[in-house]
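Can anyone check this?
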Amino acid sequence: MKDSTTMSLRHKGYISPKRAVRRVLNALRESDVIEITIPLMESPDLVFRWSSEGASEAIAQACPSR
């Protein structure tokens, strides 16, 4: 069941793009809005905030195919 709170996804180290997309899609099933934090070594962490509306476009932009 979805709640209306924000879910935060954090991951240290490398995560494959496919695994990252799976985690995002699973999180969107549980929450209306998710935040994804990407730790950067030389600057403040990068935070993406996505709602379930428009999530597929946001995921496609964040995880371009090689």
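Reply from J.R.: I decoded it. The longest helix spans residues 17-30.
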